[in-house]
Amino acid sequence: MEKRTELYRGKAKSVYTTDDPDRLILLFRNDTSAFDGKKIEQLERKGMVNNRFNAFIMQKLQDAGIPTQFDQLLSDTECLVKKLDMIPVECVVRNYAAGSLVKRLGIEEGQELAPPTFELFLKDDARGDPFINESHVVTFGWATAEQLVRMRELTLQVNDVLRQAFDDAGLLLVDFKLEFGVFKGEIVLGDEFSPDGCRLWDKETRKKMDKDRFRQGLGGVIEAYEEVAQRLGVPLS
Ligand code: C5P
After folding, report:
1. Do 187 and 97 belong to one domain?
2. Which of 102, 110, 147, 182 could form a disulfide with 143 if both were Cys (CB 3.0 to 4.6 A apart)?
3. 16 is in which domain, residue-wise?
4. Is 182 found in the same domain as 96?
5. Can you give the pLDDT at residue 41?
6. Which residues pair with 9 in a beta bridge?
7. Which of 109, 177, 189, 198 to mutate to test the pocket of ligand 1 (most atoms within 8 A of CB)?
8. Residues whose CB is less than 8 angstroms from the CB of residue 99 and which lie 6 or more positions away in sequence, other chains included
9. Residue of 175, 209, 213, 214 with the most ligand 1 atoms within 8 Å of its CB, for mutation
10. Is the pLDDT of residue 174 over 90?
11. pLDDT tens, 143-163?
């Protein structure tokens, strides 16, 4: 597989074209950003940890029958993925109250949410990724009603699989964000799953083990990511 030109540079990953028009290479960088890119730092080893973490999770989801864009690990910081037509909508599931839900609705942080909530946000940095609802998605053509049903179904399936996997590792999957795209007419899970895009708390102590350590300046960011990886059995180099 030949890596060609940079197609897109995101806040933490770069996307490259390849000699196969249906495949892209994702490069996980050490850049770490929060607050719509207002806080940016380089964290040593983060690209490698997130790339390997993502590969492990995507393989687990694929094994559970969830279609993902992931094909294979290429190096410490790169993987090969299917080229999707991305849907500009973020799907967020919450098992416990935290983050923007606490701010928006005044729910107490840490309260268990049963059943879990399912929320949609528009991917639009300039507008701070606004909260949207299902009718917006369909009316403005970001996805069809059928695609949206599938995105919700897959997101809840991901929650079932990963909640259990993290629980077995002594961690609470508090919430997470997924992005989807279309590949050959099918809705497929895209982007990444790493501690950058989810909240994970230690089950006993409720210590934060995810990007909130960076957002809140708690320190020990990569150490926490590595501990999560080690508890899950993700091989790191
Ligand atoms: O900020 P909020 O509480 O809505 O975030 C919910 C979840 O989605 C968190 O796990 C957060 O890391 C993730 N998220 C993300 N990218 C965004 C917004 C939220 O990964 N742009």
Report:
1. yes
2. 147
3. 3-82
4. yes
5. 97
6. 14
7. 177
8. 175, 199, 212
9. 175
10. yes
11. 999 999 999 999 999 999 999
Place of tokens 């508890």: 231
| Ligand 1 neighbour 175 (Cβ under 6 A) | yes
- Cα gap 168→90, rounded to integer Å: 27
Say whether both 77 and 94 belong to one domain.
no
State pTM to two decimals.
Answer: 0.98
Question: What pLDDT is stored for residue 205 in this prediction?
Answer: 98
Mean of the per-residue pLDDT values of the chain: 98
Kindly report the CA angle at 19 between 23 and 236, in degrees rounded to 5?
A: 55
Question: In sequence order, what are the residues at sequence separation of 6 or more whose Cβ sits closer than 8 angstroms to the Cβ of residue 74?
Answer: 1, 25, 80
Tokens 């399936």, residue located: 157
Give the span between the Cα atoms of 81 and 98, in whole angstroms. Answer: 31
pLDDT one-digit tens code per residue, 27-69:
999 999 999 889 999 999 999 999 999 999 999 999 999 999 9
| Token pair for 140 | 């403005």
Its ipTM equals: 0.99
> What's the total number of domains in the chain?
2
Residue at a domain's end among 82, 117, 133: 82
Assigned domain for 135 exists: yes
Q: What is the 57 CA–ligand 1 centroid distance (Å)? A: 18
Q: Is the pLDDT of residue 25 over 90?
A: yes
Is 130 part of a structural domain of the chain?
Answer: yes
Residue whose CA is at the smallest distance from ligand 1 atom 12:
197
Give the atom of ligand 1 at the shortest distance from the alpha carbon of 210. 12
Is residue 187 within 8 Å of 177, Cβ to Cβ? no
* pLDDT exceeds 90 at position 93: yes
237 has a pLDDT exceeding 90:
no
